[in-house]
Design a protein that fits this description.
By secondary structure, the protein is of the alpha/beta class. It is built from 8 helices and 12 strands. It has 2 domains: 123 residues, Rossmann fold (3-Layer(aba) Sandwich); 96 residues, Orthogonal Bundle (Arc Repressor Mutant, subunit A), CATH 1.10.10.10. The strands form 3 sheets. Strands 2-1-3-4-5 form a 5-stranded parallel β-sheet, sandwiched between helices. It is globular and about 50 Å long. It starts with a strand and ends with a strand. Bound molecules: calcium ion. The site of calcium ion (CA) has 5 residues, from loops.
């Protein structure tokens, strides 16, 4: 993959400068804009590889920017939101954002999120894993048509719901999925007790999948928000 181009959408000049300095220091190509309207224009004219999008923009709601970009592109979008706005992050993720960063964030966090996203992009570009029938990630292998999953070539004894859950996370590797999104996909609805059940199934799935359930390698928890399957090295 060529040097990725990052689009930074942020109206707060100090944050924008911190981000551009960080990207420059780490040799990324980048563009910055302070408004949603310009973000949509540049997203379509420059086709960036990754977008960092502040949710609180002066001219329009960041979620609307996501909706507009999603109407024609799957480019990864990482939203930037102020602390204590879990609801906003959830809305943004459900509108199609891939990940989020909470203000104030460190340079290390910014770079870590970017690496996760770029790693996902390179796998998407090389093996088109989203559509292939066999998924591999580290020692995990899922055979979608056969309906089975293997860890170190040993078959995992999963219940139908655990398998569905694993497939959903795997097909969206690198992306944070909200509780609502997951329960809608598994049970076709999202009631409070579905979210409670989801937690239980996640515990049992992790016990089977993760060698060290307390420091999971594959499935990351985002407290109050959802879960994400990580691409393992
Ligand atoms: Ca702002």
């Amino acid at each position: 993959m060529n040097k990725p181009v990052i689009l930074v959408v942020e109206d707060d000049a100090p944050v924008r400068n911190l981000m551009s300095t960080t990207l420059k220091t780490h040799d990324y190509k980048y563009l910055t804009v302070p408004t949603g309207r310009e973000a949509i224009m540049l997203a379509s004219s420059h086709n960036p590889d990754v977008v960092f999008l502040d949710l609180g923009l002066p001219d329009m709601d960041g979620v609307e920017v996501i909706r507009q970009i999603r109407s024609w592109s799957n480019m990864p979008i990482i939203v930037i939101s102020a602390r204590s706005e879990d609801e906003d992050k959830i809305t943004a993720l459900d509108a199609g954002a891939d990940d989020y960063l909470t203000k104030p964030f460190s340079v290390e966090e910014l770079l870590a999120r970017l690496r996760v996203t770029i790693r996902r992009l390179s796998t998407m570009n090389t093996d088109g894993s989203a559509d292939s029938s066999v998924y591999t990630n580290g020692n995990l292998r899922i055979d979608f048509p056969a309906g089975c999953a293997f860890l170190n070539e040993e078959e995992l004894k999963l219940t139908p719901i655990e398998f569905k859950l694993l497939c959903l996370l795997a097909k969206n590797t690198g992306k944070v999925l909200t509780h609502t999104y997951i329960t809608q996909n598994i049970w076709g609805r999202s009631w409070d007790n579905d979210i409670a059940s989801l937690r239980v199934f996640m515990v049992t799935l992790r016990k089977k999948l993760e060698p060290y359930p307390d420091s999971p390698e594959f499935i990351q928890t985002h407290a109050g928000i959802g879960y994400r399957m990580l691409k393992v090295e």
